[in-house]
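Go through this chain for my students:
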Amino acid sequence: MNQLLWDAYRKNATAFVHEWAHERDEKGEAHSYWDAFLKIFNLERRRFARHEGRVKREGNRQGFIDLIWKGKMLVEHKSAHLDKPEDFDKTFRQAMEYVDGLPPEERPRRVVLCNFKRFRIYDLEDKSQDVFTEIAIAELPQRLTEFSFIPEFAGELIVAEEKANLDAVERIASIHMVLKSAHYTGHDLELLLVRMLFCMFAEDTGIFEPKQFSKYILNNTLENGSDIGEALMELFEILNTPVRKRDDVGAALKQFPYVNGGLFAEKLSKTPPGSMGLRNALETCAMFDWADISPEIFGSLFQAVLDDTERRALGAHYTSDTNIRRLIDPLFLNDLWAEFHAVRHDTKKLHAFRLKLSKLRFLDPACGCGNFLVVTYRELRVLDMEVVKVLQGIQYVTDTSLLANVRLEQFYGLEIKPVSALIAQVALHLTEHQANRVLLQTFGVTVPTIPLDESPNI
């Protein structure tokens, strides 16, 4: 255990206790409480956990988990007056009902109960579920190591992300090497790889049907792979053609949605050379879940594919999100969150704050592959969703005008390299789609990601 780090955590815990020791209202402050609690460990809750996660209860009833960190931790929070042992027992039964309603891969390893006065921690990996650890809030700094599983879980998340990123690089790099060895290089190769990356993300994140791209290529080409290039060219043309204008198209191609947005507008000057090696590389990519790749490292991933040196160094750079947050948090994001908390109980001011979010403009004058713009857009969508939760309540949204507030058109970038500019645009579109998926999970309705009618100004 890093003693200096834990000394800093304990200092944070002391400040937390000082701020929250007298809070009592679960409805009003539970969300802010847990956001602040996770900051004890220098963790931003909105990066990996969410409030009011929907779950099915017995009798097909709808439940809302106070805080869910998928596969890691579930929190149920109650008001301070519910402080008897039987109150905690009832809350634990409610929490376990939620656990049973989750898919197996999302079920937590810890359940934490809290009522502002005390915490109870249940280790679900220990089969003795009647055993728990109880900590009064005043004891938190001294007994903080009882929560050591939280930074451990965060570390596991980082390791898993690194492994997924490196695995993705090796798989897409195999396509790059096959094509490069066949003398398919330059702008055509770069554009082809960006499009293939988009298609693989799309088939694993709901933009396309599951594995639609991989199945089309592998099921509609020769076993020796010789005609894969022609199949890709035909598909790219279809993705750039509105459905109503598609004539004499086979059933497999006709099922693809219209993407638009310029990504598939430019025609490759040369057809990619097909081969058994390319087919094998595509099969390897099809076995990977591209939903595990974060759009903010999309550009780094692509650069690593093109450059052997960058590929070996990707593991050292994949956490660039952290450095970006160090810049944007004090620059504007912290102030925006503070403003939100200041007006959250005033509906009129909340609407004015949302209007302000919709009018903000962001420019990165040397945007490269768009990492700063991607993280900024993602965080503004998270903030805007929190505003909607307060305005709407955690229920299904019937007014879809509440959804499309922070737009890609608010983001500007300058970049000298055309392929980097294209990667930035694609990464922002992928981030938009991920945010739209969270909208669906949270409110039961979303806005469509495609066609890509709205684009960032890069």
